[in-house]
Amino acid sequence: MNTDSTTTDQAAAAARHERFGKLPERVSYEDMVEVRPASPERSTRDTYDPESSWMSFSCWAADLGL
């Protein structure tokens, strides 16, 4: 092996170790999580309404008008 290539390999290894030789800082759980209500407004829109329940009914027989 040539001395120049050994020096180049060692320099490349040192550069890699400088860049990737340590792990990044830990991210705390509080920084990763956001807590908020599932439906903050208009929570009544998910309640059952028997008068308009037929509007969301979808079936092949109903589409054909049978």
Characterization of this structure:
The protein has 66 residues and is mostly helical. It contains three helices and no strands. The chain is elongated, with a radius of gyration of 32 Å. It starts with a helix and ends with a helix.
Query: Which H/E pattern describes the elements?
Result: HHH
**What's the helix count?**
3
What are the segments in which pLDDT stays under 50 over at least 5 consecutive residues?
A: none
End-to-end distance, in Å? 85 Å
Over the alpha carbons, how many angstroms does the gyration radius reach? Answer: 32 Å
- Number of distinct beta strands: 0
What is the fold's blueprint, element by element?
Blueprint: H1 3-20, H2 29-32, H3 60-64
Please outline what is shown here.
It contains 3 helices and no strands.
Key phrases:
66 residues; mainly alpha
